[in-house]
Amino acid sequence: MPDYKVPVSDYLFLFNQVLDMQDKYQHIKGGAEATPDMLEAIFSEAAKFCENELAPIYQSGDDGCTWDDGVVTTPAGFKEAYAKFIEAGWTTLTGDPDLGGQGLPPSLSIAVNEMMTTANWAWAMYPGLSEGAIATLETSGTDQQKQDYLSKLISGVCSGTMCLTEPHCGTDLGQMKTKATPNEDGSFSVNGTKIFISAGEHDLTENIVHIVLAKLPDAPEGTKGLSLFIIPKFLPAEDGSAGERNGVVCGSIEHKMGIHGNGTAVLNFDDAKSFLIGKPHEGLAAMFTYMNVARIGTASQGSAAAERSYQGASAYARERLAMRSISGVKNPDGPADAIIEHPDVRRMLLTQRVIAEGGRAMVTYASQFADLYNAGKTAQAREAAEARLGFCTPILKGFITELGVEAANHGVQVFGGHGYIKEWGMEQILRDSRIATLYEGTTGIQALDLVGRKVLLDKLNQLNIFTGEMFKCAGQFLPWKPAGKNKALRKQAWKVTKLALKWRYLGMRLGMRAKKNPDNVGAASVDFLMFSGYAYMAFMWLQMSAAAQHQLQTGEGDKTFLESKLHTAEFFFERILPRADAHAKTMSANIESVMAMPTSYFE
Q: Is the confidence at residue 538, as pLDDT, over 90?
């Protein structure tokens, strides 16, 4: 596998030229600290860590974790890399300054996490999961809980997990059986089993803080009866260090398709001493803080898979000789032409690039709402940002992860038979990427969340706000505007305008069809999500095109970088965006084609 190089220039382009994050930072507490020089320094140093420490142990980490009587050992090099990660202070980027953090905007951490995921997916999950635990405690924890756990989570001395799923239920949390019984000292004893717990047991930190959903004895039925608890692997000693072992044991680790370097644990809670987070029976609301953070991170994993696979495939395609170009010999001194001269190989490479860069832009755009939600200067701004982020999250998570698998698949295809061979590393990216469409809620679950909660129950409010921004942006480049003189931008702006109109129409039409038959929602939801994703990505590519054109006109920036950005944008609008029309047509199809066949026929 070729060496991974962090595309620092692309991150800086998004933050500084495309989305003008500097202006947005003025509306959040501590945002003034995130200057352009600070951004460049952070991204450049993160790139060095990713390229020098994480990327070299990506393939070797695929050998996997080992389990021995409840003890999990991570692959060679993981522990050493984590120690350097802590020493350099990377875990403290966005933490509360009063608890040892640097107080920088979450958007910076989201970008750095994508770099680390691209470099070494399985390793990056260990510190990545801690961020959700931190966010949950910051918003819902008591002062004592923050004192006991937050500073250690922020420093990286402890790591965090999210414990939802049980053997008999996946996303349907209403079926959960894990019980929490009150103790006389105000704590609780939790009994039950949780499965699929990423980073649930490992040897990287001195303690692991599990954030666990369970039911109290008086809990009502369904998800309304879920409460949220802190369950540390080791109970805090009086001096704050890891003390007595708690009643939580790793029963085994899963034998998985990918991400072998991360210990996906089965955790058994046996009278585990726990502490309630927030109010009884309101655990799911508190958990959504964690889940929104996790889903943004998972969305960026789709971009990460596309970026890593693209870099490998692009390098290979430029060197691999096979056949002659159908438009004429390109390598007269060699026995054949490089496969990058073949149109279909270029199609696959450009598709990967569109997904990596477009997905990265989508996540960065949404990260501004994470910044506002975390540190907006007014309660009104924080509330509005939460709603904006909530709308974006299922689209990001569902759409980008699906496209990430597609991109990784193209990487294998470009290599041909060599792509199927383990030593090249391309099949590992494909195996690793597949989990992103499953955890934190499958694509189907994300689609139902989008259509049901974020569109129909919201009465299209957030959809109208988002599409309103699309109209405003595209309107700058229509024929009657000065910027509309650019033919390419004008053409792209028309497409974005039509997409925004169609997106609104599809939302309204789905609502009307749902009244006739609720199954119309379930049958159309994934297509609606995918259409939403392409519309969202088109909005981003228009902004990237405009920023690149502006820099070229003013003579700023790297000409090759900017021109390649314009070529990639053109490919997206001409070759990828038409997929949205197919999704729009499919979601409007007759429900009987899905539901008419009797269940007994599925044999």
A: yes
Phi and psi (nearest 5°) for 458?
A: -85, -5
Hey, is 188 helix, strand or coil? strand
| CA dist., res. 77 & res. 66, Å (int) | 14
| CB contact burial 255-280 (16+ within 10 A = b; e otherwise) | ebebbbbbbbbbbbbeebbbbbbbeb
Judge whether 568 and 515 are in contact, CB under 8 Å.
no
Gap between the Cα atoms of 519 and 512, Å rounded: 12
- Residues pairing with 212 in the sheet: 163, 229
Cβ(473)–Cβ(484) below 8 Å:
no
What are the tens digits of pLDDT across the range 348-391?
999 999 999 999 999 999 999 999 998 999 999 999 999 999 99
The pTM assigned to this predicted structure is 0.97
Percent residues over pLDDT 70 in the chain: 100
In sequence order, which residues have a C-beta less than 8 Å from that of residue 26 and are 6 or more positions away? 32
Residues that are catalytic: 440
Handedness of CA 134, 371, 447, 397 (dihedral sign): negative
CB-count exposure of residue 287 (10 Å: 0-12, 13-18, 19+): buried
CA distance 482 to 497: 17
The closest alpha carbon to 371, from 35, 136, 30, belongs to: 30
CA atoms within 13 A on the CB side of 41: 8
Residue 330's Cα: distance from chain center in Å?
A: 40
What does the radius of gyration of the chain's CA atoms come to, in whole angstroms? Answer: 24
